[in-house]
Amino acid sequence: QVQLVESGGGLVQAGGSLSLSCAPSGRTFSNYATGWFRQALGKERQFVAAITWIGDNTYYAGSVKGRFTIYRDNAKNAVYLQMNSLQAEDTAVYYCAARTSSSSFYSSYDSRYEYKYWGQGTQVTVSS
Q1: % helix, strand, coil for the chain, step of 5
Q2: Residue 118: what pLDDT?
Q3: pLDDT tens digits, residue range 27-74?
Q4: In 54-97, where does DSSP find H-type helix?
Q5: Which residues fall within 8 angstroms of residue 35, CB to CB, at 6 or more apart?
Q6: What's the rounded Cα separation, in Å, for the pair 20 and 42?
Q7: What is the Cα–Cα distance from 17 to 15, expressed in whole angstroms?
């Protein structure tokens, strides 16, 4: 069982930046592809970004491309989401998710149903 812990959420003004981090407890993260998802109030959970287990490929939702960056530091056993130019529409609970490495990742990195492990979520609120 992999338990994920997110941190770094908070309140920020539109145009500002926040950095989220995700770390597993008791496991090495380098064996897991990792994604960030978000869920706004009253809406479905949606894909934000994903990264392969060795960090050589990254994927983004169109709404965040060019503003958000996902990266990982396997030496620190953590995955990060740097969010710049935040907008009110980015307000949501952000979840870190992980799945074991496999070739199927490349065709399903944006599917929340393919991720087996989830964090508890961290709130990001962007004021306009």
Answers
A1: 10, 50, 40
A2: 96
A3: 788 889 999 999 999 999 999 999 999 999 999 999 999 999 999 998
A4: none
A5: 47, 48, 49, 50, 51, 96, 97, 98, 99, 109, 110, 112, 115
A6: 22
A7: 7
Residue type, 55: G
Per-residue CA distances from 102 to 53, 96, 115 (Å): 9, 18, 12
47: its two tokens? 């894909």
Q: Are 50 and 35 in contact (CB under 8 A)?
A: yes
| pLDDT band, very low/low/confident/very high, at 5 (cuts 50, 70, 90) | very high
d(CA 112, CA 15): 28
Distances (CA, A) of 72 to 17, 21, 60, 124: 18, 9, 15, 20
